[in-house]
């Protein structure tokens, strides 16, 4: 058996020179320090994304993306298809854990200034994937065509009309018409299973290649400490095995959540019914949703809604471009300002999310 | 051929090349753009509907009715008078409802509030609800767009 694998390896190696790749992998080291734990969240995000791809493809076998059949097909998956409830529940839970892992990964990279030169492109591709993760969540949320999803989509797409001139065409493009209808469902289905995964895969490939090429970033203050004796561990196999062990733990958590807290389907959307009381978006949009509640109808001379969109739009752009305005970190100097902003953002998100949850 | 002529020839070829590249891209992108733009549905614009029978609507209640392909809210107040509004919240397109306990029209999405004349009185809605005209003929309630 061993011989067989060796021969296979030799056969491939002769043709594509595998040896140099293996040597490259062997030379890669991961820094070991008291903040090393944060390195694992990128891997966890990747793992959860893989789960989404697999369970998503499985769901595709039965899901029907139309106004009349979407709700019924998921009901069918959950009640008639063997293990359908499990696959669907895992897909929903993994989506939420994925976004949580991505949030943690993003903030850990932010606070450790890992975005600084020369890793600006890694940060940018990461941020684009973060926005895509939210878009995945938003588009996937509508697919069961239930009441909550219907109104969440109405509100979420209507927000774009706050943008002058191009806002309305964007909304109509997303909805496939003036209102949220079966046409919207078809489009969201297309975005969710074809367009987004396509773009995401390209970004992910660049992101991972860059991480392999440039290696892990070390936090600034550790680089600074001259006395500090640098420890490191080989990426292959040491770090990878730890990664895999963690993936196994995440898979267990996911299984427990999916089995003991199965994802609900709710009631089918009725475009002529009032929005149900206590309607809320998914938790990762709650802080924005709650902010919109507090913004009055008019601020100075602009509508509250436009103000909110502007606020989050500008904040998102500034956050994405942090490697380009935080020059100090790129020069290897301390920049406490970055910490203050980061802490403010984390506290703001947590506080508003809790408020949104409670009210 | 002089240098100047060569220069002019190069410019000519460049213009042809980039011009045809632009035209080529446009001929691909234009159909895609047009394809993605949802077609205008030529639906008959509804201007008036029969909403309900008077006997079916209790005093101090709100009923959802279909006005074309949009929801409308028909309200009968405590005195028995009827009012009708577009049920689409002017804030972010959610569907509003009548709240009996508070005597207001309420949008659950962002806690928008309107009085029974459709005026925005609280929360984020920037404008009043669109009001419809209510006409009662022989025990039947008709609502129509205010023209």
Please specify the SSE layout and strand pairing:
The complex is a heterodimer of chains A (359) and B (147).
Chain A: H1 2-16, H2 18-27, E1 29-32, H3 40-60, H4 70-79, H5 84-111, H6 120-142, H7 147-158, H8 167-175, H9 182-214, H10 220-224, E2 231-234, H11 235-260, H12 283-294, E3 298-299, E4 302-303, H13 304-320, H14 322-325, H15 327-330, H16 336-358
Antiparallel strand pairs in A: 1-2, 3-4
Chain B: H1 3-36, E1 48-53, E2 61-67, E3 70-76, E4 82-86, E5 97-99, E6 104-107, E7 112-114, E8 120-122, E9 131-137, E10 140-145
Antiparallel strand pairs in B: 1-10, 2-3, 3-4, 4-9, 5-6, 6-7, 7-8, 9-10
Molecular structure report:
The complex is a heterodimer of chains A (359) and B (147). Chain A is mostly helical and 359 residues long. Chain A folds into 2 domains: 26-266, Cytochrome Bc1 Complex, Chain C; 285-359, no CATH class. Chain A contains 16 helices and 4 strands. In chain A, the strands form 2 sheets. Chain A has a two-stranded antiparallel sheet. In chain A, α5 runs antiparallel to α6 and α12 (283-294) packs across α16. The model of chain A has no long low-confidence stretch (mean pLDDT 91). Chain B has 147 residues and is α+β, with helices and mostly antiparallel strands. Chain B folds into 2 domains: 1-39; 48-145, Rieske [2Fe-2S] iron-sulphur domain (Rieske Iron-sulfur Protein). Chain B has 1 helix and 10 strands. Chain B has one helix at residues 3-36; strands at residues 48-53, 61-67, 70-76, 82-86, 97-99, 104-107, 112-114, 120-122, 131-137, 140-145. In chain B, the strands form 2 sheets. In chain B, strands 1-10-9-4-3-2 form a 6-stranded antiparallel beta sheet, with no helix packed on it. Chain B is elongated and about 95 Å long. The N and C termini of chain B lie far apart (74 Å). The model of chain B has no long low-confidence stretch (mean pLDDT 88). The chains are: A mainly alpha (359), B alpha+beta (147). Chain A binds chain B through residues 151, 154-155, 157-159, 169, 172-173, 175-177, 179, 183, 271-279, 289, 292-293, 295-298, 303-305, and chain B through 36-38, 41, 64-66, 69-71, 73, 87, 91-97, 107-111, 120, 123-126.
């Amino acid at each position: 058996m061993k011989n067989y694998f060796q021969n296979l390896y030799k056969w491939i190696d002769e043709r594509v020179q595998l040896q140099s790749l293996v040597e490259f992998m062997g030379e890669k080291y991961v820094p070991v320090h008291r903040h090393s734990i944060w390195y694992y969240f990128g891997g966890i995000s990747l793992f959860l994304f893989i789960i989404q791809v697999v369970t998503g493809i499985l769901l595709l076998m039965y899901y029907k993306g139309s106004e009349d059949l979407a709700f019924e097909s998921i009901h069918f998956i959950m009640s008639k298809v063997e293990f359908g409830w499990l696959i669907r529940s895992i897909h929903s839970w993994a989506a939420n854990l994925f976004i949580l892992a991505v949030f943690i990964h993003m903030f850990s990279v932010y606070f450790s200034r890992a975005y600084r030169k020369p890793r600006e492109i890694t940060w940018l591709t990461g941020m684009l994937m973060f926005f895509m993760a939210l878009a995945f969540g938003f588009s996937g949320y509508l697919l069961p065509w239930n009441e909550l999803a219907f109104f969440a989509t109405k509100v979420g797409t209507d927000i774009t009309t706050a943008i002058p001139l191009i806002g309305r065409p964007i909304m109509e493009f997303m909805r496939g018409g003036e209102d949220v209808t079966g046409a919207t469902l078809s489009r969201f289905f297309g975005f969710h299973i074809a367009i987004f995964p396509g773009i995401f895969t390209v970004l992910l490939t660049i992101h991972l290649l860059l991480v392999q090429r440039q290696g892990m970033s070390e936090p600034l203050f550790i680089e600074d400490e001259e006395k500090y004796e640098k420890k490191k561990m080989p990426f292959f196999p040491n770090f990878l095995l730890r990664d895999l062990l963690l993936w196994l733990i995440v898979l267990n958590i996911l299984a427990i959540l999916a089995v003991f807290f199965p994802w609900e389907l709710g009631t089918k959307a009725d475009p002529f019914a009032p929005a149900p009381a206590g309607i809320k978006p998914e938790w990762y949009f709650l802080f924005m949703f709650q902010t919109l509640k507090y913004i009055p109808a008019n601020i100075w001379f602009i509508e509250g809604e436009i103000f909110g969109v502007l606020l989050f739009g500008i904040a998102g752009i500034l956050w994405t471009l942090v490697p380009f305005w935080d020059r100090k970190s790129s020069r290897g100097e301390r920049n406490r300002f970055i910490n203050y902003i980061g802490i403010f953002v984390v506290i703001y998100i947590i506080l508003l999310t809790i408020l949104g949850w409670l009210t | 051929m002089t240098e100047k002529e060569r220069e002019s020839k190069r410019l000519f070829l460049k213009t042809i090349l980039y011009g045809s590249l632009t035209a080529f891209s446009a001929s691909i992108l234009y159909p895609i753009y047009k394809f993605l733009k949802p077609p205008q549905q030529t639906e008959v614009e509804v201007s008036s509907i029969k909403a309900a029978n008077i006997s079916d609507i209790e005093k101090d209640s709100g009923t959802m009715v279909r006005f074309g392909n949009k929801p409308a809210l028909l309200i009968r107040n405590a005195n028995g008078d009827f009012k009708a509004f577009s049920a689409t919240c002017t804030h972010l397109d959610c569907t509003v409802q009548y709240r009996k306990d508070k005597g207001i029209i309420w949008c659950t999405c962002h806690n928008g509030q309107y009085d029974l004349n459709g005026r925005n009185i609280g929360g984020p809605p920037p404008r009043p609800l669109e009001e419809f005209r209510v006409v009662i003929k022989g025990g039947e309630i008709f609502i129509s767009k205010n023209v």
